[in-house]
Structure formats: C-alpha cells, structure tokens
Amino acid sequence: MSFFGRIKEDLDNALTHDPAARNRLEVALTYPGVHAVWGYRISHFLWSINLKLLARIHANAVRFTTGVEIHPAATVGRRFFIDHGMGVVIGATAIIGDDVMMYHDVTLGARANVKGKRHPTIENNVVIGAGAKIIGDITIGHGARISANVVITKDIPAQSTLESSEFFVI
C-alpha cells in the first residue's frame, strides 16, 4: 500500500472507531492518537535504517506534542487506533497486530530490565480499555477485549473478555 493509501486507511479507521469523528479533515487535523501513529511510523522507519538517535529524537518530539510514547523499535500493525491517546506508553519490544484499538493511559510495559523480548504482544482485533497496564513478555490473544484499569501480567486467550473484576497481579 502506498504512503497516501496508509494515511487514508488510518483516517477511515478513526472514522469507523470514533462516533464523534465527523470527517477525514477533522481527524487529520485534531486527533493526537492518529498523529502519534503517523509519528511512530516515521520514527520506526528511521530506526530501521539505523538512524537510531534521530529516531529517538523524533519519537520524543511526537511524545511531547501528542502525549503518546511509542518506542521506535516497537512493531505496530495496520489500522492501529489510539482514542484520546494521552498517557499511552508502548515499549521497545512490544508487538501490536492489525486492527487494534487502544484508549488513553494504556501501558505496554516491561516487568524487568533485561535484554531481549520484555514487552507484550497484542494480536489482531484486540480492544484495550483506558488505564489498562499490560506488563511483561505476554500475549493478548486475537479478538480479546480488555476492560479499563486492569493490570495484566499473564497471557490472555484469544476471544476472551477480561472484566475489571478479574484483576491479575504480579
């Protein structure tokens, strides 16, 4: 898909996921979650061509302007939508599949300061509620629905719905 095709896909995805979104122009100009994803893509490209310092500088500027921190080494799939965005943190070894929707104040973090894979893998078609903390090298299965304000430190099977009363502790 072309660069402009991806932009259109992101705009259409925001319109699909946010009933308050009225048109592509409004989304393109005013949605920090969309801006954060676009900024991540630039930073990730810079990271992939070994301009790592420039990638980190760019990612920091995106974080400053959007309130969303996505490490340039993370892997993010297509049609990733962050609604509201502020406070989202996505670590360096996180993997996010296609068609994932995430609300504000979500963390995809590490449990330990070690080399290698230490952040979560989020499979396709997952929805993550506001304030959820998903910590460690774990997998959230395809189609899972994660409620707001949960802390998850264990794998969640595909097609699961995790309610806030099902609280996983470290």
Automatic annotation (TrEMBL):
Keywords from the named record: Acyltransferase, Amino-acid biosynthesis, Cysteine biosynthesis, Cytoplasm, Repeat, Transferase
One Pfam family, short name: Hexapep
Catalysed reactions, as listed in the record: L-serine + acetyl-CoA = O-acetyl-L-serine + CoA
EC number: 2.3.1.30
Biological pathway: Amino-acid biosynthesis; L-cysteine biosynthesis; L-cysteine from L-serine: step 1/2
GO BP term, pick one: cysteine biosynthetic process from serine
Gene3D superfamilies documented for this protein: Hexapeptide repeat proteins (2.160.10.10), serine acetyltransferase, domain 1 (1.10.3130.10)
Cellular component terms per the entry's GO annotation: cytoplasm
Subcellular location as annotated: Cytoplasm
SUPFAM superfamilies on file: Trimeric LpxA-like enzymes
An annotated Gene Ontology molecular function: serine O-acetyltransferase activity
InterPro entries noted in UniProt: Hexapep, LbH_SAT, Ser_AcTrfase_N_sf, Ser_O-AcTrfase, Serine_acetyltransferase, Trimer_LpxA-like_sf
UniProt record similarity statement: Belongs to the transferase hexapeptide repeat family.
PANTHER family in the cross-refs: SERINE ACETYLTRANSFERASE (PTHR42811)
Protein name per the record: Serine acetyltransferase
Native source organism of the sequence: freshwater metagenome
